[in-house]
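Changelog note: in this version the structure field was regenerated for every chain. One regenerated record is shown below for reference.
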Amino acid sequence: MSPDLPAPLTVVLGVIDILEELSTRYHLGGSFASAVHGVPRQTMDADIVVDLDADRVARLVDRLKSNFYVDSEVAADAVSRRGSFNAIHLESGFKVDFFVKGDSDFDEAELDRSERCQIVEDPPRSVYVKTAEDTVLRKLQWYMAGGSVSDRQWRDVLGVIMTGGEGIDRDYLREWADRLDLADVLSRALSEADAH
């Protein structure tokens, strides 16, 4: 790993190395995914969606514990209830939030559609990242769950749509927005993005 990389990115890539060695399906979400899709933002954590079972989470925690504070009981509980847990990098304090893949059709589609994106040029390094469309849909869910008041989530949504331009699959967005009860808020986001 290049010593010239920013500390958060080095931490994230180290975690992804472990996930890939354990043959664990994953993708980067949150601010890292937004940044890949053209909306960079400072963050003190990374969101990684993971497809874990009880055996694999135990192996993951075992591999992490030399460099991270991670509670094995909390991690095991997160897997059993399809929740989340975190690991805090001991040296930097950077936090990695693991979101255990849920059971819904959207959870499965989102992980299946992950794209391998190059996020480091020298040496070249690619990781799985949530697609632009799924980033928009998930952020709209968070926006709605938070009472539709988060400027940060809304700016991320608009930024991903505007940066993606013609490359954004609007049919896919509308199909899932209907199924996820997000049609109205997606329509507002698309209109606002198109107006810029």
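Spot check on this record: The longest helix spans residues 7-21. Strands lie at 26-28, 45-50, 68-69, 84-89, 95-100, 115-120, 125-129.
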